[in-house]
Amino acid sequence: MKLTKHLFFILISFISIQANANEAKNWLNSEIDLIISAYKNENLPNENKFLMVEQTINNNFAGTGIAKFVAGKSWNKASKDVKLEYIKLFKRHLALNISSMMQGYSNQKYQLTDSRYDEKNKVTLIDMEIFSDTGSIQVTWRVKKSKDRFFVIDLLVADISLVVTKRSEFNSMLKTVDYNLFEFNKKLLAQNESSYQKITN
Fold first, then answer.
1. Number of domains the chain is built from
2. Mean pLDDT, to the nearest integer, of 21-32?
3. Domain hosting residue 174, numbered range
4. Do residues 125 and 116 touch, judged by C-beta distance below 8 A?
């Protein structure tokens, strides 16, 4: 009898975990479709397309947590105002990066192939395959639920973490200003403005 109860609770837990994974998968699918539909619209100005991406990043990415991780040891040295400015700049930087990648979009097909819940880390992993004329690429989204909402916490392209890559990239830039986040914000602002001009023109 005890064994039967134990198996029952395992089954219920598994069903609950799968339901959570499927819910996250459906949420991600709708968010991706929203952006892709914008890039399919040739009449929509580039600035509008970018603003859609930026809004999606601000609403659905764990921007503050990612920004803090990427800043590394420079984070603790900075004042509150400098940190807030950096978070704002980082989110725009992320949106500009994704918009830049989307500019090469030419009606590729994609499919969300699998979703699974990592019980240990409380994260849902969602695999996506993007197809093109030359082949396909594997992308894995790491999605976390907080306060009844889903947030993207990382993106792995061909098993390479976007967050880890950004931390390495930013560390090289931070080194040039002796890990001073205030000075780094000036560099990031200039970089963002340059990228924005390229994307919206």
1. 1
2. 83
3. 2-200
4. yes
